Each structure stands twice: as structure tokens, then as C-alpha cells.
Amino acid sequence: MxxxxxxxxxxxxxxxxxxxxxxxxxLPGRRLAIKAMMESYEIGQTPLREALNRLAADGLVAAEDxxxxxxPGISAEELLELTRTRCWLEERALRESxxxxxxxxxxxxxxxxHRLLRTPREPDDPTWEARHRDFHRTLVGNCGSRWLxxxxxxxxxxxxxxxxxxxIRAFPMRDVEAEHRAIQAAVLARDADGAVxxxxxxYTATARVILEDExxxxxxx
Length: 221
What we know:
- The chain is mainly alpha-helical.
- The chain has helices at residues 3-22, 34-41, 45-58, 76-99, 103-117, 126-140, 146-165, 176-188, 192-211; strands spanning 31-32, 62-64, 68-70.
- It has a three-stranded antiparallel β-sheet.
- Strand 2 (62-64) and strand 3 (68-70) form a beta hairpin.
- 27% of the residues are buried.
């Protein structure tokens, strides 16, 4: 196998494993046995290990000495910390994006919101997830700091694991479309305080729904 082809294979399997972790198909705490993964993903050992090491660097896989790789576990404490930190970072990023607003960025926000609102939210449909991510990333993407956007992306990944594990039955209780529409309207109206408040409420409401899901966090007693 050529070096270029090996890199291509490693990138391909990286994307596939990443999607399976974020989509909840590889559950928290699962041991990622090399032999089984090679068979499941039809990939050689070297590109597989390269992909797993990349995912470990991203925080989506835990690498343990002498024990190989596992999918990181979850906890209510981590979810709360993730949510708080995401709110802090995205508040700064959104305020900066709005301060740097241009007609092109506002059109991008409008288009991303339109695409999201026109896409039905179906279980296991990657289209809604991709457009949801694009909408939120567009909101903060005009902040002028690739580092800040990168940190927001990392928190989005970690948060998505929790969202996908939450029972789909819990989310129809919220009008998520209305929440996205309100955030977009506040941004386009240049109401930074209102947009930040709505975005924070949006994320904290999601965390509350997940924490109340007994299939993820059984009651203690």
C-alpha cells in the first residue's frame, strides 16, 4: 500500500468511527478491540491505529496504556461542565461575530437557518444533524478567531454524544424549530444580548432534557 493510500484509508476510517461515536452507535465505555474493529471497518491495523490516535487527540477516544482504546464514558457532571463551557465560549464567539457582521455573514446565517428549518428531524438522519451543526457554526464562525471556532467545534462534538444518546421521544416536547428561529431573528436584528440569552437557554434546555432521560441517567436511590 502506498503512503498516500494509507493516509486516505486512515482519514476515511477516522471519519467513519467518529460518526459512529457521535451518532451513539459506539456506546460510552465500549472497548475498541483492534481485531474486531479491523473486521468491522474492513481496514488494516496501521491505518486503524492512526485513526484511533487522531480520535484520542480529539478527545473522542480514550487511549489507555496496555489496555488499548475505549469510547469515553459519560456523566451528569461532565454534561453540566460541557454545557457551561460551551455557553461561555459561544457567547464570546457570537458577540464577536455580530460585532464583525457583514451582509455576506448575515446572508449565511439566514441561509443556514432556512436550510435547517426546511429539514425534517428524523431519527438517524444525518442531514438534519449536519444542517444543525452548520447553523450553530455559522453563528460563531464570523468571530475572527479560528482558535475560538475550533474550541467551539470540539465542545459541539462532545455535546453531540449526549444529545444522540438521549431518547428521541424526549425532544418533541420542545419546539426546537421556534428556538432556532428566535436565535436567528435576534442575530439578524443585531440584538446581541437577546441572541446570547436565547442561545444559552437553548443549550441549557437541551442539557436539562438529557439529564432527565432515565435511559441515560437512572434515578439514584
